[in-house]
Amino acid sequence: MSLSIRNRIPGTVTAVTADEAMATVKVRLDGGQHITAAVTAGAVKDLGIAPGTPVKALVKATEVALATGHVEGISIRNQLAGTVTGIAVGGAMASVQVDVEGGGLTAVITNEAVEALGLAAGSPVVALIKSTEILLSAT
């Protein structure tokens, strides 16, 4: 199956907490950082996800927000430290490439946000991703 999602970060499931409808899946990314995905309990069963299962975390570039440091007082728990490796500016939006340990991410944000954050190649950033916006693929 081909997908348009370009953000595909490999990792290994470390924990699964499920109820009748939903589950949280904790994943240790290959670079050592941790994320949590919120998926349906049916998906966990269908994909055979359990601790030790290798997976890829899939995230649309439009669902990745950037900050210049760790953010307190926010419900988003997935905060991946990284470094900007490149920025492609368009008419209104920019595509920002971020190297996180264990993989790379692309964030699509406004040109105004790039300017306001002072982003450039080499800038340290934190990628923010809601757990409900992370899809999992069994590898």
Name some characteristics of this structure.
single chain; 139 residues; mainly beta; five-stranded antiparallel β-sheet; 10% helix; elongated
- What is the percent of helical residues? 10-25%
What average pLDDT do the residues reach?
95
* H/E series: EEEHEEEEEHEE
Low-confidence stretches: none
Number of helices: 2
> How many whole angstroms does the radius of gyration measure?
15 Å
Strand arrangement, major sheet = 3-2-1-4-10
Shape: elongated
- Structural class given helices, strands, pairing? mainly beta
Secondary structure tally: strands = 10
Largest sheet: 5 strands, antiparallel
Percent of sequence in beta strands: over 45%
Note the gap between the termini. Answer: 13 Å
Written description of the protein model:
It is a single chain. This protein is mainly β and 139 residues long. Helices cover 10% and strands 53% of the residues. β7 and β8 form a beta hairpin. The two termini are 13 Å apart. The mean pLDDT is 95.
In short:
By secondary structure, the chain is mainly beta. 10% of the residues lie in helices and 53% in strands. The strands form 2 sheets. The chain has a 5-stranded antiparallel beta sheet.
